[in-house]
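Structural prep section.
Before we set up the soaks we want a predicted structure of the protein with phosphoric acid mono(formamide)ester in place, mainly to decide which crystallisation condition to try first. Input record follows.
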Amino acid sequence: MALQSNHLLGLEGTPREDIQAILDSAISFKEILERPIPKVPTLRHVTVVNAFFENSTRTRISFELAQKRLSADVVNFSASTSSVSKGETLIDTIRNLEAMKIDVVVMRHPMPGAPVILTKYCSSKVINAGDGPHEHPTQALLDMMTLREAFGSFENLNVTLIGDIAHSRVALSNIYGLLTMGANVAVCGPPTLIPRNIESLGVKVYHDADEALAHSDCINVLRIQLERQKSGLFPSIREYHSFFGITRSRLLKASKDLVILHPGPMNRGVEIDSDVADGPQSVILQQVTNGVAIRMAVLFLIAGGEREDELVN
Ligand code: CP
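Run finished without errors. Recording the tokens verbatim:
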């Protein structure tokens, strides 16, 4: 079993069969994570570099845990403590890492398209851990795994992404992945935070949060980047919270018990209230748990897919 691409750069154009393969493999890996000794030798022949040119908590740590659970050799690279701070380029940096014989680069970078550029200059397999506002494929895959656990299937599932859609790599990867798998996808937010012509991707647009919730089975609440208010994209945090914040009273108005996702990090009291984030409809920490299983599945299928026999040993 292997994916159709050598890399995971985004979910745009990723075939349904590949998404299905990742989600299905992640079920086996989640079971491994629940064992008393949650470790298998599957990637003991593989060396992975986690190259993070931007801050991260969840993605960096869950990739590292996934690699260690699969017995890969792991090296962590952080731009702020490397020779990047002396002016070394991205390509030179990765070429130097490759000279030390690595197999896979997991990269987060603020520039959209940076992982694609890497594939043109390096022979390692590349996994995108978030490239600027472009894509964050493993986040969308773990969101989809969590939705499949909650609902069983994506067919006719009504998913709404609410918040800063225009600057969100999580939104774009979720849109591509969910539409490929047959879900109905909507976005909701103030017009300044919704890209023009986003309907052309096949999503519905709401500017009224209560209306969006009335048509949803689940909502994925996106972080409001506080610097957006300084650049005038919405008048105040208080007004954003009043019109688009996910509060207990807003959830009570919805016709059903919505499942609530958030990719993190959260701004409590801005896009989501604490009693919702920590309440019974929230699957936010389940998303984090599933992140390790999804990243194990992606690493396995990208770097060691032919060694299927070792998956459960
Ligand atoms: N969801 C997410 O990408 O979180 P981090 O920035 O902490 O990795």
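Observations: The mean pLDDT is 94.
Flagged for discussion at group meeting.
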